[in-house]
């Protein structure tokens, strides 16, 4: 049975006359998650009550706001049982009006003005308005099925995001998840004001995106014979695992996300983590194979042959089709965990090293520099098509090319180094933001959330100018040991709530004790949507770890 927490933290109820009856009115709370930058309550004024006569208005001819108005109507119905009428035109009494305004200087910012007569939601763009309707939804109490009416307190919210990049990554290479479930994940991201869905599409254990020029990638590369289910006993399930997305299905995900102002960033991880591709086209490897799609997880020595011109053409052909499907300004090309053992023994790789005049230096081996060459060729190709390149922090090992944006996952050190070289950085350290990390998933109760909440993405050791290169932060959901939605969501929620405050709320506004008081109302929304969040999160019988111990443990990893 789901526990209803919304009455536990002083949610106010009041009586209000409606027609000739006197139903009770349950008041919502504008202090939602992520916490808005400014909330001003007009406590002496009467609230705005959601009634059957409530309407939602949007500017005539604005298709994006028309769609957003429809989302808001559905969200209100979800928690109140009342679906407001959606119409174009001006606002008025009993109306929630949506509009874009030049008064709002932040593109993703919004202003919410609530009185007893009407609600006005102004955004710096349509995206800003969309973030505002998420706040409205989270601010409303759940009264559906009761005799209560829902109300919003009179007041004003001025809000905008701290970071322009607020991401979440899902790995579908290790375990495949259908389009229908990814749409649910996108809705979950939208609820938390996340604006980038990083889609990890290829892995050693499975290639998940259709490439028409190379059909074997999905005919062969999307299927493995079995999957390890116990890392200690090395037991396997003996069940083939398969699945891939057609390009039309990928376009549908892009469309669905874009309607919620989320950009989908595809990742084709190279030159490592390519066993599925090598099993499909063995001529792309240094040894020529044969290769087999692995049924266990880890880092493998078999990688793309960086000295083979055919391999470079293959990656460009793949990216060409990816560019046609995904309009994102970023294309992620991985660069992580690429052992160089095959390159050291490969005649083609060593010939390319000599051709390029690469030499071992104190900072970089010639094989690491070969990877920089390979990634640089891909970067030039992607840049020529008007896009930007993202890569994991191992791309630093051979020296950075000119226009790379770095995702720092092994810690914050790679991000610090990249920022000092004036490269944009997205912080996603394993110690805090890998929600599938088996070590830190052992933390119970609120400690799991606290560990995320206390992470600060902008390191103090950077100068103010260098700090400006930290453009955002991201959490990652790797699926080596996650094969179903129940485990997926219990690993993600409610840590995604803590992530959202790292990404959105200014650090001086954050307070973990206050966050804990605001969390139950969001847990109610999770329950209403059927999300399988971690139920022990408010278990007072599990001692809470001091903040200092959490920080020290992270440094010890």
In short, what is this structure?
By secondary structure, this protein is α/β, with parallel strands linked by helices. It is 34% helix and 19% strand.
Topology:
Blueprint: E1 13-15, E2 24-27, E3 38-41, E4 48-49, E5 55-58, H1 63-80, E6 85-88, E7 95-100, E8 110-114, E9 118-123, H2 126-139, E10 149-152, E11 155-159, E12 165-171, H3 179-191, E13 196-200, E14 202-203, E15 206-207, H4 216-219, E16 223-224, E17 228-230, E18 235-236, E19 241-242, H5 247-259, E20 263-270, H6 275-280, H7 309-325, E21 330-334, H8 341-345, H9 347-356, H10 366-384, E22 388-392, E23 404-408, H11 413-420, E24 425-427, H12 430-433, H13 446-453, H14 464-467, E25 470-477, H15 485-492, H16 495-504, H17 512-529, H18 547-556
Parallel strand pairs: 2-10, 5-6, 5-7, 7-9, 12-13, 12-25, 13-20, 20-21, 21-22, 22-23, 23-24, 24-25
Antiparallel strand pairs: 1-2, 3-11, 4-10, 8-9, 8-11, 14-15, 16-19, 17-18
Helix pairs in contact: 1-2, 3-5, 7-10, 13-16
